[in-house]
From TrEMBL:
It catalyses: tRNA(n+1) + phosphate = tRNA(n) + a ribonucleoside 5'-diphosphate. This is Ribonuclease PH. Belongs to the RNase PH family. Residues 1-130, 148-214 form the Exoribonuclease phosphorolytic domain.
Length: 227
């Protein structure tokens, strides 16, 4: 893993917030609580966790145009924020959360590979801090977060399995993957693809082993941040 740091309480008005840095990738994650749910689950007694994701114009080497200026989100953005939302929901007991919604916003201020993984990892910290406020206010009686959720990228670069790819490694990796796991080791999602080179089942297993190691380190950082 590249160096990992998580600073909490970085946004005054959010119920939960953090700045997560993994190497030179930096993401601000906030969690906002609303006492309502989307219409499709209204009256069900279930809570909802959703996410939004964006990259600031100078988070990359050259300025990118704000998506708001073009009037719509790009396909990559929509895919990533759906991934963040369903990943975080996999660690939530929605009955215990009650009929309320928590929206996790992930804003990339600096990108050097693994922004979606950093967003999921930091997003869980922001979510946990927001839930802690609910518990402190006795709005809920038990912690609805059944396990931490974290994510890491792995790939085959220069013929070798590599954990936590930075941008130069990611852009040249023969095989690239994102691994989302719960803290108890349960898999949430695995995205793997050949980027100019195929891979064997044995190589996939080695990447999975690396991912489990990386996620275990991230979970320890998450727990330390919210302690």
């Amino acid at each position: 893993m590249r160096p990992v740091s998580i600073e909490t309480g970085v946004v005054k008005h959010a119920e939960g917030s953090c700045l997560i840095r993994i190497g030179d990738t930096a993401v601000i994650c906030t969690a906002s609580l609303e006492e309502r749910v989307p219409p499709f689950i209204k009256g069900s007694g279930l809570g909802w966790v959703t996410a939004e994701y964006g990259m600031l114009p100078r988070s990359t080497g050259s300025r990118m145009r704000r998506e708001a200026a073009s009037g719509k989100q790009g396909g990559r953005t929509v895919e990533i924020q759906r991934l963040i939302g369903r990943s975080l929901r996999a660690g939530v007991d929605r009955v215990a959360l009650g009929e309320r919604q928590i929206t996790v916003d992930c804003d990339v201020i600096q990108a050097d590979g693994g922004t979606r993984c950093a967003s999921i990892t930091g997003g869980w910290v922001a979510l946990k801090l927001a839930v802690n406020k609910l518990l402190k206010a006795r709005a809920i009686t038990s912690d609805p977060l059944v396990s931490p959720v974290a994510a890491v990228s792995c790939g085959i670069y220069a013929g070798q399995p590599v954990l936590d790819l930075d941008y130069p490694e990611d852009s040249e990796a023969g095989v690239d993957g994102n691994f989302i796991l719960r803290g108890d080791g349960q898999l949430i999602e695995v995205q793997m693809s050949a980027e100019g080179a195929t891979f064997t089942r044995d190589q996939m297993g080695k990447l999975m082993d690396l991912a489990e190691k990386g996620v275990a380190e991230l979970v320890e950082a998450q727990k330390a941040a919210v302690a």
